[in-house]
Amino acid sequence: MRSSPNARFSPRADNPDCLSGAFLIHRRMAAPHHSSHATQNPAPEPPAVSAALARAHQKYWRFNLALIAALMSVGFAVSFLLPLAAPALAHLRFAGFRLPFYFGAQGAILMYLALIVVYIVSMQRADRHLQRAFEADAHTAADTGAASGAGVPSGPTAADAGMRGNLIR
């Protein structure tokens, strides 16, 4: 396919500065590109939320972080502190086995699975609570819009549907 042995190093037709056999990134490719695309099409603004929904969302994330910290602490204790205390716990038996052996063989894995189940159940409950707060906020906004007669649609909008989808996950 090559016409000459030097064709490997000949410039490409679409970019004369680029060598076809080169593996290094060209200096023009490595420089940050400042395109006017961001100024022509700015990112859409998130929909406005009420103070009650903002508080519910903040409470949701604080709960999430506290739950993760608590579960990670339990995981740390099972993974690191229990093996350090193994000589002191060697005289204790569980299901006929010494406690350190049981935790090393299968107890730690069961604890990790239990931590996962606790996280899933707790976050599903928190998601339902946040969903109820979102729906109450949507009903309040619809009632306020209908009472003012400002022509605000009372049904859910596309932004509501997108937000609701994000809250359910």
Write a structural description.
Helix 3 (51-84) runs antiparallel to helix 5 and helix 5 runs antiparallel to helix 6 (158-168). The mean pLDDT is 75. The protein has two domains: 9-40, no CATH class; 52-168. It has helices at 27-30, 37-40, 51-84, 86-89, 99-148, 158-168, and strands at 93-94, 97-98. A hairpin with a 2-residue loop joins strand 1 (93-94) and strand 2 (97-98). The chain has six helices and two strands. It is mainly α and 169 residues long. It is elongated, with a radius of gyration of 30 Å.
Write the layout of secondary structure elements.
Blueprint: H1 27-30, H2 37-40, H3 51-84, H4 86-89, E1 93-94, E2 97-98, H5 99-148, H6 158-168
Antiparallel strand pairs: 1-2
Features:
single chain, mainly alpha, 2 strands, elongated
Summarize the entry for a quick read.
The chain has helices at residues 27-30, 37-40, 51-84, 86-89, 99-148, 158-168; strands at 93-94, 97-98.
